[in-house]
Amino acid sequence: MNKKVMAVAVASAFAVPGVALAQKSTVEIYGRANLGFSHYEAKGATAGAANDLPGRFQVFDGSSRVGFRGTEDLGSGLRAIFQFETGVNVDNGSNTGQGGQANASSGFWASRDSFVGLDSNWGRLTFGRQSIYWANGVNAQFAANYVNTEIPWTNGTQLGRISIQGAAVARVSNTVQYTSPTFAGMNITGSYSVNPQEAQQTVGTAAGTTSDADGYVFGLTGRGTWGPFYAQADWVTVRANSLNATGTGGVLTPKGDAYKIGGSWGYMPGARVGLIWVRTDVNNGAANAVGIATGQKVNQDGWTINWEHTFGNFQVMAQYGWTGDIKGNGCNVGTLMNGVPTCSESASSAFMIGGRYFMSKRTWLYLTYNQVDNEQNQYVDYTGGGITSWGGSGTAAPTLGSLTGAVPRIFALGIFHAF
Q1: Tell me, which fold does domain 4-11+24-418 have in CATH?
Q2: What is the pLDDT of residues 136-178, one digit of tens each?
Q3: Cβ contacts of residue 155 below 8 Å, gap of 6+?
């Protein structure tokens, strides 16, 4: 990929008395524009046609961005590094998704992965807003680097009625992250965020409920490359701030854990096949937005098969995935998750087919079709980057209970340019 690189001599730009600044710093401007025209709908809701999301056209933005990153050689194998990456909604010039819903990864400086740190032969240490858990490396790059979207649970963060408690685990603010050196093709990344603590609040003193500043997000990722084979394992645990609630019998701590294991084989240049397994566990320490009763636990598994193959200037790609039913003692509660009464018939299946035509190394056209088939007590939708078109702009989003059983579909034609 061609980059626009600006090399500047730090010593000539800043005169610092008594300090010899012989090293040079490089700053790189990079980014992408990923836009297109699509049609979205979610019909077939269990509650009847009145609850469907009718088909509508949209000009979409698929995670366009602008970034600045750079390094400075500090000597003895030590480098200073930084990155400031900002999501840019080129379609509407704001920080909202297709239906006006807020998109925290766009519209503000450093809304995407942004950090400063040190890098050397002992590893890399960074501080800032950074990704935890969700990335898949080369195991699945469709939504991350190729096209508009993919099967929702591929990155392990969205299983419909099951979601990880307390904080997002994709791009997390206030994170310290360490990545080890690579040995025998393998390395490990550890991430720790105190973001829930920084948001500590007193919640409804009249009701006798306060929150402690003890929440956190902790994640581990191990990855390895051995010739044409790539494997990755992820684990993240999210602990919300504890709730000291009068009359509830003590401290309550909503929490969740997510697990992901994937592997793939690059059997020729531009061609790869792989499998990813994900699991989400929710332990609801307090009755909150997830909707299960105090102290109940639920979990769900998902799988995705990924395939891509290149013929000259054309690449075909396909995904097929499925989830199991929700399980756990929370399934015994009659009002599980927004009034949906049962964990049975809570599975989903999905597929994606598409193709890319390479006009150059940095520019391509693509065509994709995505569909999720939800059973009558489940609703999984495409949420990355606010790509679905309901909610926001003063319009109340439909409730989860009304959408269960619907079949979201997205047909898209897009153009991707990297710089």
Answers
A1: Porin (2.40.160)
A2: 999 999 988 999 999 999 988 777 767 665 445 678 999 999 9
A3: 134, 135, 136, 140, 143, 170, 260, 278
Specify which residues 315 forms β-bridges with: 310, 356
CA proximity to 295, closest of 305, 286, 307: 286
Instruction: Give dist(CA 267, CA 271) in Å, integer.
Output: 6
Q: Please report the pLDDT score of residue 201 as a whole number.
A: 59
Q: Residues 386, 410: contact at Cβ < 8 Å?
A: no
C-alpha dihedral (135, 139, 140, 145), degrees to nearest 10: 70
Name every residue whose Cβ is closer than 8 Å to that of residue 81 and which is 6 or more positions away in sequence: 69, 70, 71, 115, 116, 117, 118, 119, 124, 126
Residue 257 identity (one-letter amino acid): D
Give residues with Cβ within 8 angstroms of 227, minimum separation 6: none
Interior angle at CA 289, CA 285 and CA 294, nearest 5: 25
Name residue, tokens 């990722």.
221
Residue spans per domain, the chain? 4-11+24-418
> What pLDDT score was predicted for residue 185?
96
240 pLDDT tier (thresholds 50, 70, 90): confident
Tell me the three-class secondary structure of 360-417, residue by residue: CCCEEEEEEEEEEEECCCCCCCCCHHHCCCCCECCECCCCHHHHCCCEEEEEEEEEEE
Instruction: Report d(CA 400, CA 341) in Å as an integer.
Output: 12
Question: Is-contact 156 133, C-beta < 8 A?
Answer: yes
